[in-house]
Design a protein that fits this description.
Elements: E1 2-6, H1 14-29, E2 33-38, H2 53-58, H3 62-72, H4 91-115, E3 119-122, H5 126-131, E4 138-141, H6 149-152, H7 156-159, E5 169-175, H8 187-197, E6 202-205, H9 208-218, E7 223-224, H10 236-239, E8 249-253, H11 259-272, E9 275-277, H12 296-305, E10 308-311, H13 314-322, E11 326-329, H14 338-346, H15 357-362, H16 364-367, H17 373-396
Parallel strand pairs: 1-2, 1-4, 2-3, 4-5, 5-6, 6-7, 8-9, 8-10, 10-11
């Protein structure tokens, strides 16, 4: 069977690219032929798509940004705390950041050329897909926040597979909706999304938050599965291409950084007697080694060899867990942490999550305890087997 995969495939985001790599690899391991649909977000050209998602969000008009923030974040936490505000950059620093991002995009394109050679031509709209209908028997959308309408905006019908012909299967695997369980759709949009969801043959979502949103808004109770990065057993194929050795280091992979968080980072490194590495950070920070250009294989190599990882990234946390690393998580901002908390609870790792700098340091002795990864990976094995089974059944039949 020929399977078309739809996700945020063309971006210089490590987690988004690796979950696409994993889903593609796993479905192919089942004996299916695959293609990956190339849908740049917000109708941008391939050239402009080189601007990473966070830069496009920060570049939204202030009025639009505030509206999105109100929709995603409960009213009682809408005011940003000091530790949630990213370093303000000068125009020169912003230009440098863009240049480093462009360099990384070239490395991501090289990765895609090697490991995702089945990436299609670009599609921008539902009409474009209908007029140039991709050749496939089944269409799988997911993972990542493909159903977060605040990210895909006017393109949301694409990611709900509105273009797929009735005779072909529609499958959602580990789809995520972002926001929180109380997310409210606009009435017209809500009706449209319900119509599109009703046409799916199988709906599998990534977290409890997505289950609740589907239940509260659409009367559906989908099955929950693991992120695609858990579907494959190892990443030695990619790790073998990296010579990175971060032994003796605290690796910081965090988007929202500022003086408050950097003081925390330095305190942790001092107590643990570790060097600080912040590879792929696009902002140059005094006294910290600066390596903003980092290919995917090297990012994985650093995670696999670092002594401790401090992150606000969902997929960075995933690979810490897969590689059996010691790590601690602090979100960038309130409103999007549900997917991370959900995963950590499932694996008995709730004590690795802290919502602010004070809580993190007050519980230093708690999260400094070694993780019992034998127990964690027993849970992963069970959840992985269930997730694989759900996906196999979805591809073979109906599992709604």
């Amino acid at each position: 069977m020929k399977v078309a995969i739809l996700t945020y495939a063309r971006t210089n985001n490590y987690g988004a690219t690796l979950q696409c790599y994993a889903l593609n690899k796993y479905i192919r391991s089942l004996g299916h032929e695959t293609i990956i649909l190339n849908v740049p977000l917000t109708g941008l050209s391939c050239k402009n798509e080189r601007k990473p998602l966070y830069r496009r969000i920060l570049g939204l008009p202030k009025k639009v940004f505030k509206k999105i923030h109100r929709m995603m974040v409960p009213s009682n936490v809408q005011s940003l705390k000091d530790y949630e505000i990213r370093y303000q950059l000068t125009p020169e620093q912003s230009q440098k950041e863009k240049e480093y991002s462009d360099q990384n995009m070239k490395l991501f394109d090289e990765f895609r050329a090697k490991y995702m050679p089945n990436l299609t031509r670009e599609y921008f709209t539902v009409e474009d897909l209908k007029n140039n209908y991709p050749d496939a028997d089944a269409f799988v959308v997911g993972s990542d926040q493909v159903w977060n309408v605040n990210i895909c905006l006017d393109q949301y019908p694409i990611f709900f597979l509105d273009f797929v012909k009735p005779e072909h299967k529609r499958i959602a695997y580990a789809a995520c909706m972002g926001g929180d369980s109380n997310y409210i759709f606009e009435s017209k949009q809500k009706r449209h999304v319900k119509e599109m969801l009703d046409r799916f043959d199988s709906i599998l979502v990534r977290n409890e938050m997505a289950v609740n949103i589907c239940r509260n808004n659409f009367g559906l109770v989908p099955k929950q599965v693991l992120d695609p990065t858990f579907l494959i057993d190892d990443y030695n194929e990619l790790l073998s291409e990296s010579k990175q050795n971060a032994s003796g280091s605290l690796f910081v992979d965090k988007f929202i950084i500022n003086d408050i968080w950097m003081n925390v980072v330095r305190e942790i490194a001092s107590r643990k007697k570790l060097d600080i590495r912040m590879d792929r950070c696009l902002i140059e920070i005094k006294d910290i080694p600066f390596n903003p250009v980092c290919k995917i294989q090297d990012w994985l190599g650093i995670l696999n060899t670092a002594d401790l990882i401090f992150t606000d990234s969902f997929h960075c946390s995933v690979f810490c867990i897969l590689f059996r690393k010691q790590f601690v998580v602090a979100p960038s901002y309130h409103g999007g942490e549900g997917r991370m908390i959900d995963l950590l609870k499932k694996l008995g790792l709730e004590d690795r999550f802290y919502s602010n700098p004070q809580d993190l340091m007050d519980n230093f002795e708690v999260w400094s305890q070694p993780i019992d990864y034998d127990e964690v990976h027993k849970r992963i094995k069970t959840l992985r087997e269930e997730s694989r089974e759900y996906l196999i059944k979805a591809l073979d039949g109906v599992n709604k």
